[in-house]
Amino acid sequence: MFKPLIIYIGLRYTRAKRRTRFISFITLTSVLGIALGVTALITVLSVMNGFEAELRERILGMTSHASITGEDNQLRDWPALEPALNQEKRVLGWAPYIEGQAMLSSEHRVSGAMLRGIQPAMESRVSEVTKHIVAGQLDALRPGEFGIVLGEELAAYLGVMVGDKVTVITPQLTSTPAGILPRLKRFTVVGVFKVGMFEFDRNLALIQLDDAAKLLRMDDAVSGLRLKIDDLFYVREIVRQISPKLPGRYYISDWTQAHNNFFRAIQTEKRVMFIILLLIVAVAAFNIVSTLVMVVTDKRADIAILRTQGMTPASVMGIFMVLGTVIGLFGAILGCAGGIALALNVETIVPFIERLFGTHFMSADVYYISELPSKLLWSDVWQITGMAFLLSLLATIYPAWQASRIKPAEELRYE
Question: Could you give the C-alpha distances from 233 to 65, 228, 254, 256, 322, in angstroms and in order?
Fold first, then answer.
């Protein structure tokens, strides 16, 4: 069906004569339409991949891959778990923590916050907070000194810096001659961290584990143990393997339970965006139908002459399928190249546009992160390019079939 003559004629019809410049313009717009659709689809999916990966990294950099706690959300014999956890090769690190809600008060403002008691020496095993300290240091959290490390947004809201004092107010009540009052304690700001995720930078405060136990009246107990696992995506299987080996009855949860709905929502949004943008590619691909219909109408006499010289209907159909395939192939290749180039440079292009127009596209308190990340997956590239080309190929069938049905006698009657 696709003989060299058919390919030659099909490629020849892609070039315009003086009287058919409009048809060539329509052909060019079809190519550009497919290219723009593929470029947009690759870029958007890359940005959403980057957004998901960045959120996962930042969330799990500050929370735990898995956590162990007791029946009443307290763990009293946590040192007894050390031998069992140290024997697990897939557990990269663990650390105790105490967590509770509190109010933080400065001379300027009051704000609610999540108060987390940690041991600085062990915290680096399970979180990335040490890498994100922008002022002071995490090691300044020493037992009995009542130091506190704040998120950058929280510190800015309270109007405090390293060395300033804040008052921590907890829900635990204290009986005094004046009546029952909430517990108050003055803390010194010894550090500020910036994760780049508004949820933590605005709402998290870190104190030393022993200080948290005194403040929240935990005695020798902790809220639980945070674990760092070697493979995030198999954390459920790993947790199931660890659970029977622990000496006693404990509750183990993992990050997929704590943030499952959030990441499912991102996956759903990604699929919806893929379908919407694929429809744009489909519309551009089916512009090929109108292009080929106009070409067939313009070339009816030529087709009739070719038929009288012995060309079969299948060969005529092949000519126009070659023409449509070339349009789809060029559009897909151009879109693939444009999408790859744009996806790899989004993190450079977007800040340039923001500086140029004096605006900011992503507010951290709305989108969790303030930068637009991108992660190009080659599987997405091949899938999108292949589907665009396939849609283009399908769009050529009907016009090519109509061309093959042209009857030479009727077309040449008045020539």
Answer: 10, 12, 11, 9, 45
Directed axis angle between helix 21-62 and helix 260-298, to 10°? 170
Asked if 172 and 216 touch (Cβ cutoff 8 Å), the reply is: yes
91-107 residues labelled b (16+ CB within 10 A) or e (exposed): bebbbbbbbbebbbbbe
Neighbours of 144 (CB within 10 A): 9
Distance CA 147, CA 143 (A): 8
- Other CB atoms within 10 Å distance of the CB of residue 151: 27
In terms of C-beta density within 10 A (0-12 exposed, 13-18 middle, 19 or more buried), how is residue 108 classed?
Answer: exposed
| Cβ neighbours around 177 below 10 Å, total | 4
The Cα 5–Cα 14 span in angstroms is: 15
Q: Which pair of tokens denotes residue 211? A: 């200080």
Give the bridge partners for 254, in sequence order. 66
Q: What is the H or E stretch that residue 49 is in?
A: helix 21-62
Nearest to residue 200, comparing CAs of 120, 128, 94, 126? 128
Helix or strand or coil: residue 309? coil
Q: Which tokens hold the place of 30?
A: 């079809």
Give the C-alpha separation, 64 to 46, whole Å.
26
- DSSP H helical ranges for 299-359: 300-308, 313-357
pLDDT in tens, the chain (415 residues): 445 777 777 677 666 555 556 556 777 888 888 888 889 888 888 888 887 777 777 777 777 788 888 877 788 888 888 888 888 888 888 889 999 889 999 888 899 999 999 998 888 888 888 888 999 888 899 988 899 999 999 999 999 999 999 999 887 766 555 555 667 889 999 999 988 777 888 899 999 999 998 888 888 888 888 888 887 777 788 888 888 888 777 888 887 776 677 677 777 877 888 888 788 778 777 777 877 887 777 777 777 887 787 778 888 888 888 888 888 888 889 999 999 998 888 878 877 777 777 776 666 555 555 567 788 888 888 988 888 888 888 888 888 888 888 877 776 665 5
Please name the residue that has the structure tokens 């403002």.
109
